[in-house]
Specification:
By secondary structure, this protein is α/β, with parallel strands linked by helices. It has three domains: about 5-265, 2-enoyl-CoA Hydratase, Chain A, domain 1; about 300-480, NAD(P)-binding Rossmann-like Domain (Rossmann fold); about 500-585, N-(1-d-carboxylethyl)-l-norvaline Dehydrogenase, domain 2 (Orthogonal Bundle), CATH 1.10.1040. It has 29 helices and 19 strands. The strands form four sheets. An eight-stranded mixed beta sheet has the order 12-11-10-13-14-15-16-17, with helices on both faces. A six-stranded mixed beta sheet has the order 1-2-3-4-6-9, sandwiched between helices. Strand 1 and strand 2 (about 15-20) form a beta hairpin. Helix 25 (about 595-615) packs across helix 28. The chain binds (2S,3S)-3-hydroxy-2-methylbutanoyl-COA. (2S,3S)-3-hydroxy-2-methylbutanoyl-COA (T1G) binds next to strand 5 and helix 3.
Length: about 675
């Protein structure tokens, strides 16, 4: 087996190249090769300096995550980094692509770092429930300073090469051939002694020592973002050790904290999710060589909240959009909202004024439906009623060019029925964006019975282009996410009649780690969504609220009352409505435990997920988890409903549901797959 590490001499410089596609992960063979290369440089008097570089798309993008959980193979990464740093000759990291995690730690072990302007740097271990475990929490603060180190280790984001150079993480930006300039740099520094070792620097730590409140302030400022996660706090503790202790001691704290995280359920869940997210983009029964169709112009029908948000995704990715409305004022309102959203992003410094103009300049608003004739993909985003959608697709069938993909943004309705309104069902697909469409990353790609393979491949490729995470769903009511939402909403509402309050149910969900509970979500989305609009027809609690204009936050009243700052408080009026319904329905009020709420809402979601799997409406259980993390904010440190259920134990899930079966009545039936998997001691996601 040839080593992924090769070396060759260029004058008195030893060039060490890693070729370990796709991302030069620091697997065992790479680590072994790096150690051998440093030994070679050390033992060869003709060598005065070393350049470490990577072939392919990127510098080392981190430890090899596929090795996690397996018996460790020596040398481990911390040792490799120390060997590099202790090389008696200067070692220069030549960086392109993304130097991430262990990759950045290798670069920090080098005495110097040079990079091309497009290079990016980060320590995303926190997203895997970990911390940089190869000296990164100790070297990064010493090189980049404590504030930047805290931001990077707890956020897991990337910084660009220019910023890295400005904070001293990169010694020189290279224009032109990276390796050639890195060798020239090596010749400049080859005789400089002592060698600059990151682990021995103290200047940047001294700055932080002058501000002892730095950690408390950071914790306070980031409390909301870090809530529920274990890794961010332990990353902070490791950086505190860097400030308080000499490197040799601080690195022992890092090792202890790393092992504590690695052995925990959150790291397992987040590492599981890293691969789940990437697996979602693969469609098992479509050959990988299937070519996507060329999408040069997108048409969007409807300039409402969804149509505008959907359009922005394409405009931001540089894809021109023709947006169609029925009336000028609706069209103007829609395009005005899009511009406002862009300007708000620009105001936050996340895009420039030029980029706003560029995006808006690629938009063609029109009232002329036939203007869609030259679009390669047309997305319908109008009212959620089948009649209107079938009418629109019938019209589209007459004007869209051959081979155009016709997509509906429906969130529930039957895509096959919509496709049947055209003569080209093979070109019809569901593209279910989540609101707000220009923000939420999830895209459910709904595969009709007749949807052509290359249409699906096009949808998945396009999702990547517009920075969405796409999951293929089958045609069923609510597809994956909303279908699992239904039993949760049904049981949550019944629990109100039985004695729980909106506040209790929402609290249980928020304590679980959801961003909000069912009733907070209803008030945010709108209690009137899906309401029949007849105030005299009051068949359930939502009808009663909607009939009184309690439509949620937008009306300062829904399941909660809201003050002028939209702060919620339990509503006596809502409690009256619930009590009236309870009396009307003859339901006996009783104390509801938090555990019952978990069993009646979260366990039933798992059961519905199992049904989705057994009906083939999702390709795999991990896809269901991707939908819930990206579509509804399920806490990623719990992996997603199906991964979480495995951790709970499917036998416990079944027992809990059996506990509640009577109370749930005909609204509930067991998934056979859940029963069988639990009985066999199996799991959904491992
Ligand atoms: N290990 C193993 N495989 C990896 C990998 C990694 N670190 N990174 C990516 N892959 C695989 C990925 O599964 C996919 O495989 C393919 O490469 C392309 O990935 C001790 C402990 C680098 C920005 O967290 O952020 O270092 O699906 O689709 O969009 O302190 O990959 O093709 O079979 O994402 O171009 C820290 C994770 C590790 C970086 C490229 N590093 N990777 O994005 O490609 S922990 C990370 C990424 C660590 C040390 C600690 C991205 C990318 P397949 P992709 P991309």
């Amino acid at each position: 087996m040839t080593s992924p590490i090769s070396t060759h001499k260029h004058g008195s410089t030893l060039i060490v190249t890693s070729n370990n596609p796709p991302v030069n992960a620091l697997g065992a063979a790479v680590r072994q090769g790096l150690v051998a290369a440093i030994e070679q440089a050390t033992g060869d008097d003709a060598i005065h300096s070393v350049v470490i570089t990577c072939a392919g798309q990127t510098f080392f993008a981190g430890a090899d995550i596929t090795e996690f959980g397996k018996p460790p193979v020596m040398p481990w990464l911390p040792e490799v980094v120390d060997i590099i740093e202790n090389c008696p000759k200067p070692v220069i990291a030549a960086i392109h692509g993304t130097a991430l995690g262990g990759g950045l730690e290798v670069a920090l072990g080098c005495h110097y770092r040079v990079a091309v302007p497009s290079a990016k740097f980060g320590v995303p271990e926190v997203k895997l429930g970990l911390l940089p475990g190869a000296g990164g929490t100790q070297r990064l603060p010493r090189v980049a300073g404590v504030p930047k180190a805290l931001e990077m280790v707890t956020g897991g984001g990337m910084i660009g090469a220019a910023e890295a150079a400005s904070i001293g993480l990169v010694d020189r930006l290279i224009e032109g051939d990276l390796v050639q300039h890195a060798v020239a740099f090596a010749n400049e520094v080859k005789d400089i002694r002592p060698l600059p070792k990151s682990s021995e620097r103290d200047d940047k730590l001294a700055e932080a020592r002058a501000n002892p409140a730095i950690f408390a302030d950071f914790r306070k400022a980031n409390a909301r973002k870090m809530k529920g996660f274990e890794a961010p706090e332990l990353n902070i503790q490791a950086v505190e050790a860097a400030l308080a202790k000499p490197y040799a001691e601080g690195v022992l704290d890092e090792r202890r904290l790393f092992m504590q995280l690695m052995s925990g359920s959150q790291a397992r869940a987040q590492q599981y999710f890293f691969f789940a997210e990437r697996k979602a983009s693969k469609i098992d029964d479509i050959p990988a060589y299937t070519k996507p169709r060329d999408i040069r112009r997108v048409g969007v029908i409807g300039a409402g909240t969804m149509g505008g948000g959907i359009s922005m995704n394409f405009l931001s990715a540089g894809i021109p959009v023709t947006i169609v409305e029925m009336a000028q004022d609706a069209l103007d309102r829609g395009t005005g909202t899009m511009r406002k959203n862009y300007e708000a992003t620009a105001a936050k410094g996340r895009m420039t004024a030029d980029q706003v103009e560029q995006a808006m300049g690629a938009l063609t608003p029109t009232l002329d439906f036939s203007a869609l004739a030259d679009c390669d993909l047309i997305i319908e985003a109008v009212f959620e009623t089948m009649e209107i959608k079938k009418d629109i697709f019938g019209k589209l069938d007459k004007i869209a060019k051959p081979g155009a993909i016709l997509a509906s943004n429906t969130s529930y309705l039957n895509v096959d029925e919509i496709a049947a309104a055209t003569s080209r069902p093979q070109d019809v697909v569901g593209l279910h964006f989540f609101s707000p469409a220009n923000v939420m990353k999830l895209l459910e790609v709904v595969r009709g019975a007749r949807t052509e393979s290359d249409v699906l491949v096009t949808a998945m490729a396009l999702a990547k282009r517009i920075k969405k995470v796409a999951v293929v769903a089958g045609v069923c009511h609510g597809f994956i996410g909303n279908r699992m939402l239904m039993p949760r909403q049904v049981e949550a509402t019944k629990l109100l009649l039985e004695g729980a309050t909106p506040d209790q149910i929402d609290r249980v969900h928020v304590e679980f780690g959801m961003p909000m509970g069912p009733f907070q979500m209803a008030d945010l989305a709108g209690v009137d969504i899906g309401w029949h609009r007849d105030p005299t027809r009051i068949e359930n609690i939502r009808d009663a609220l909607a009939a009184e204009g309690r439509w949620g936050q937008k009306k300062s009243a829904g399941f909660y009352d809201y003050d002028e700052k939209r702060r919620p408080s339990p509503s006596p009026r809502v409690q009256e409505i619930i009590d009236d319904f309870r009396t009307r329905e003859g339901v006996q009020k009783r104390d509801i435990t938090d555990q019952e709420i978990i069993e009646r809402t979260l366990y039933t979601m798992v059961n519905e997920g199992a049904k989705i799997l057994e009906e083939g409406m999702a390709q795999r259980a991990s896809d269901i988890d991707v939908v819930w993390v990206y579509g509804y904010g399920w806490p990623v440190y719990r992996g997603g409903p199906m991964h979480w259920a495995d951790g709970e134990g499917l036998d416990k899930i079944v027992a809990g549901l059996k506990n509640q079966e009577q109370r749930m009545g005909s609204d509930f039936s067991f998934s056979q797959l859940l029963l069988d998997t639990a009985a066999s001691g199996g799991k959904f996601t491992r």
